[in-house]
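Q: What does the assembly look like in three dimensions?
Context provided by user:
Components: four
Sequences:
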Amino acid sequence: MKVEEALQILKEHGYKYTGKREEMIRICAAEKRYLSAKDIMERIKEQYPTLSFDTVYRNISTFVELGILEETELEGEGRFRLACSADGHHHHHVICTECGKTSSLPGCPMNVMASVPEDFQVTGHKFEVYGTCKECVAQSN
Amino acid sequence: MKVEEALQILKEHGYKYTGKREEMIRICAAEKRYLSAKDIMERIKEQYPTLSFDTVYRNISTFVELGILEETELEGEGRFRLACSADGHHHHHVICTECGKTSSLPGCPMNVMASVPEDFQVTGHKFEVYGTCKECVAQSN
DNA sequence: CTTTAAATCGGATTTGTTCTGATTTGTTAC
DNA sequence: GTAACAAATCAGAACAAATCCGATTTAAAG
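A: Here is the predicted structure of the complete assembly.
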């Protein structure tokens, strides 16, 4: 997803434009990486030093609801990245547990592995591979 | 896994036997379901009304380390169930997001979907299907 | 420009979890 | 069985992530 697309989605849903929202989206767009709310706060402080964490959290959940951000959870805290499944076709990620960097995996296990018991009404699924990326492996030596 | 097995594992690793530990394991063994720390506390209070949450949390993490419990995360809190992948062969679960009930899925996407980029040093993976079980669907009507 | 609802602020609050220091309990050696 | 020691537990303080709240500011529509 591109920054402009994300802003368009906000507009379409009747949300107001604010520089803070745009900047948050820009920050997420700048890295193929899951960021924590704290990471985003840190980066946005350069431009908006007084931004409150309430604003960051509230906007993040708006973005997640609208499908602008994708969410996961690492070490007990929420992590976010600009949605990319929406772009082409649905896929999953390899995630570096050190730095949050991601790499796409082709395909989805739901297509390959049938046989979900029929008495479950399926609402979603998660497939994530965890590991350490090249850079983080190097750094830990 | 059976309660006796779990106690055996504790013993082998030099952990002491306590009634509280056994009861915690029994509680988890009694249900094919992910329980929160709070769920476990609630159930154990019948027998050990003064048990502190510190003890519950500490024992849970010991159990997870030893592979007695499996861990996941639902709605921002840790959930636990008696390990069953260890029993037969490795597999994954469909999980009811209402009540934590689980159902096994045969196989593992890691076997089916090769192609993890080689510059990632893989340490783990998660495949979970979420939904609402028959009972919880019925209840919400 | 005025109006109004949405967004933001700043700080208090809540929730899940971990830490700390004092006390109790299982286990081992006698 | 008893003594001694390390591990386990207790109670509550502390912590971190996330949410809530009332007051203020701001984007956008008329």
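Follow-up: Strands of chain B lie at 35-36, 69-74, 77-82, 92-96, 102-105, 121-132.
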